[in-house]
Amino acid sequence: MFRHLRPVWAEINIDNLINNVNEIKRVAKGKELIAAIKADGYGHGAVDIAPFMLDAGVNRFAVAVISEAIELRRNNIDAPIMILGYTPLIFGKDLLRYEIEQSVMSYEYCKKLSTLATEEKSIAKVHIALDTGMGRIGFIPNEDSIEEIKKISELPNIKIVGMFSHFATADEANKEYALTQLDKFKKFDEKLQKRGIKIPMRHIANSAALIDMKDSIFEALRPGIILYGYYPSNEVNKSIINLKPVMSLKTNIVHIKEVERGTSISYNRTFITERKSKIATLPVGYADGYSRALSNKGKVIINGKIANIVGRVCMDQCMVDVTDIEDVKVGDDVVLMGEDSGLKIDAEDMARLLDTISYEVTCMISKRVPRVYIKDNKVVKIRNYV
Q1: Which of 215, 213, 217, 208 is closest to 235 using CA atoms?
Q2: DSSP state of 90
Q3: pLDDT (tens digit, 9 = 90+) per residue, 42-61?
Q4: Inter-CA distances, 99 with 82, 117, 125, 126, 155, Å
Q5: CA atoms of 112 and 130, how far apart (whole Å)
Q6: Catalytic one among 187, 198, 257, 267?
Q7: Residue 42 annotated in active site
Q8: CB–CB of 199/206 below 8 Å?
Q9: Could you report the per-residue pLDDT of 1-42, keeping only the tens digit for each?
């Protein structure tokens, strides 16, 4: 435990982060890396991990919303940043002021952005979003879109720096649909080129495509979850790239009590002891991102042994059965997510219990949990948000 922090913290292993970037570079073979650092770097702390990513060879960043981009700029991250989602033009001046690259999906939007950029004597850099099959945002790859993009390319003070799309099923064993998307992307680009529109940076490859679909890597790729040490699914070829989880989640025991058989634990009495038991209380709950759905299902590591979460996970606390753990005491370290003594509970393990994906598990860890950054087995930074 770190004495000046509350006894719940997330450890961010910078060496593992660097390993993952290096592995991506090895497989990508010189292509530009656009690191997906949205959702506060998938919960790892975007501002704090971005410099390490740049030092390791990341070229650009991708975020979801403009506030994420501005936060990076205000913390001296000057690498190119693109916004993957929609930005209302009320924030248009911020796009220009902070030199943020915007995804676009209509001529009308670009026309208004062009007018603003001209008034501000600036250049708006944009990435054409193409919907090849995700059904989310972007131009439909048809002739009408060719005409719209042609008009966008002729707008004053608008510079098309890229075109991108997103795979819906690249993480599945069956790549038929993903290959259909890739074919649409290629053919649309060919049609643009025939109209004299050469896109400098084309990017559709995500984490899964880097592993299984090398032909989808053009000038750049957008890795996401693999940066943080997790494979996008169990259906990709994991032997291609060696990943190491970056985040661990830890706490300390704050209370231990011995209770008789038949004692109920936590809300709604969902757990009742079947023997004389020793119950430990942990100061972590769903407000910290430790999901209530882990009630009576979650597991933790204490003193080299697995212990079960018992009863409902509360907003700020939860309980574990430590009856079978010798010499357990208040203050002992508890691994909620991570490794200890040869045992491991990672985000994928937790995701299986929650019927979700590792992405959501790391993103759930709230700002109430301090981030402790460790490199070469030394603490290099602590971020205490609240």
Answers
A1: 208
A2: G
A3: 999 999 999 999 999 999 99
A4: 9, 11, 8, 11, 18
A5: 20
A6: 267
A7: no
A8: no
A9: 566 678 999 999 999 999 999 999 999 999 999 999 999 999
Same fold, 31-228 and 247-383: no
CA quadruple 160, 110, 150, 65: dihedral, nearest 10: 50
What is the rounded distance in angstroms from the CA atom of residue 255 to the CA atom of residue 72? 40
Say whether 159 is catalytic.
no
Residues annotated within the binding site for substrate are 136, 315
Q: Pairing between strand 158-164 and 318-321?
A: unpaired
Q: Which helix (H) or strand (E) holds 160?
A: strand 158-164
Handedness of CA 258, 320, 284, 302 (dihedral sign): positive
Strand, helix or coil for residue 352: helix
Indicate the length of the chain as a whole number.
386
Question: Pairing between strand 277-282 and 255-259?
Answer: antiparallel
Q: How far apart are alpha carbons 173 and 233 in whole angstroms? A: 9
Q: Which two tokens stand for residue 379?
A: 């603490």
pLDDT tens sequence across 228-255: 999 999 999 999 999 999 999 999 999 9
- Second CATH level (architecture) for the domain 247-383: Beta Barrel (2.40)
Host H or E run for residue 145: helix 143-153
Cα 68 to Cα 186, 235, 378: the distances in Å are 31, 31, 28
The stretch 97-110 carries a mean pLDDT of 99
User: How does pLDDT run across 323-351, given as a tens digit for each residue?
Assistant: 999 999 999 999 999 999 999 999 999 99
- Domain limits, the chain: 31-228, 247-383
pLDDT given for residue 139 in this prediction: 99
Please give the CATH topology (third level) of the domain spanning 31-228: TIM Barrel (3.20.20)
Identify which of 71, 29, 66, 64 has the alpha carbon closest to the alpha carbon of residue 50. Answer: 71
Residue identified by tokens 């033009």 is 89
Annotated binding site: 136, 315
Strand 277-282 with 318-321, pairing: antiparallel
Per the residue annotation, which of 38, 125, 175, 250 is the catalytic one? Answer: 38
